Amino acid sequence: MRFSIQMIGLAFVLLIGIFVGIDSAEKNIQKMQGVEGAPRAVQLSSKGNKLELNVLGQVVQTKKIDTIKVEKVQKTIAKSENVLSNIGNAIGSNMRYYSRMMLGSVFSWDE
Predict the structure, then answer these.
(1) DSSP secondary structure letters along 72-110
(2) How far apart are CA 50 and CA 54, in angstroms?
(3) How confident is the model over 23-75, as pLDDT tens digits?
(4) CA distances from residue 54 to 31, 39, 45, 72, 80 in whole angstroms, order as listed
(5) CB 36 within 8 Å of CB 47
(6) What is the DSSP letter of 58?
(7) Which residues are within 8 A (CB) of 83 and not within 5 positions of it... i.e. 6 or more apart?
(8) Residues 6+ apart with CB under 8 A from 38
């Protein structure tokens, strides 16, 4: 069981890596050819209430999007981003304070 989960996880990571590699290679090829903005291999766009995924020229559309659910998810993400940014800011300010305190004590013996 554990082995199969590891193999599935590895396959998933490799698949994501392949898509990221194709995308970055395509961006660089377009830069070299001077045709930036041309259609890409994997492209996501929204048209009205539907999402459209274009993968290597084949278009896949989703069903209509429920705007109420989208707004709930956006609010949840905004709340979590605020919490995470506040935690990051607190950690950064504490690190700055303690590093200044340590450096101040290290260099104070010179005076």
Answers:
(1) HHHHHHHHHHHHHHHHHHHHHHHHHHHHHHHHHHHHHTT
(2) 13
(3) 888 788 777 776 666 666 667 677 777 777 777 767 766 677 677 777 787 77
(4) 21, 9, 8, 26, 30
(5) no
(6) E
(7) none
(8) 30
Domain boundary assignment for the chain? 66-111
Q: Pull the structure tokens for residue 100.
A: 């200044």
Residue linked to tokens 């305190």 = 101
Question: Do 29 and 41 form a contact (C-beta atoms < 8 A)?
Answer: no
Tokens of 60: 């896949």
Q: Which of 42, 59, 62, 60 is nearest to 50 (CA)?
A: 62
Evaluate if pTM is beyond 0.85.
Answer: no
Cα-to-chain-centroid distance, residue 1: 30
Q: For residue 54, which of 67, 64, 68, 40 has the smallest C-alpha distance?
A: 40
Residues in the chain: 111
